[in-house]
Design goal:
The chain is an all-alpha fold. It is built from 2 helices and no strands. The longest helix is centred in the middle third of the chain and has 60 residues. It is rod-shaped.
Length: about 90
């Protein structure tokens, strides 16, 4: 009985060791994994840069919109003044 148990333990250990060797279990990444990681990092950096560019463009466009609205209000005020002057001249 003890011999069978000892044999079972040895066979199990050998099988486990063989599985580890055959599956290539390592704590280091292989070349494909490193390349995929670098590509992912580059894609993330590119996406972050695109986001920053979009935010910058949004801020710029909002600023331009505010300027255009201000110019529109000034022109409406001028139009009102001219209209009042024309009305006063016609009377």
């Amino acid at each position: 009985m003890r011999k069978a148990l000892k044999t079972l333990v040895v066979v199990s250990a050998v099988m486990l060791l063989a599985m580890l060797v055959l599956t290539g279990c390592t704590k280091y990444a292989n070349e494909q994994q490193l390349q995929a990681l670098e590509e992912t990092k580059a894609a993330a950096k590119s996406a972050e840069q695109a986001l920053a560019d979009c935010k910058s463009e949004t801020t710029n466009l909002e600023s331009q919109l505010a300027e255009k609205k201000q110019a529109l209000e000034a022109m409406k005020a001028e139009q009102k003044t001219v209209s009042e002057r024309l009305t006063a001249m016609g009377s």
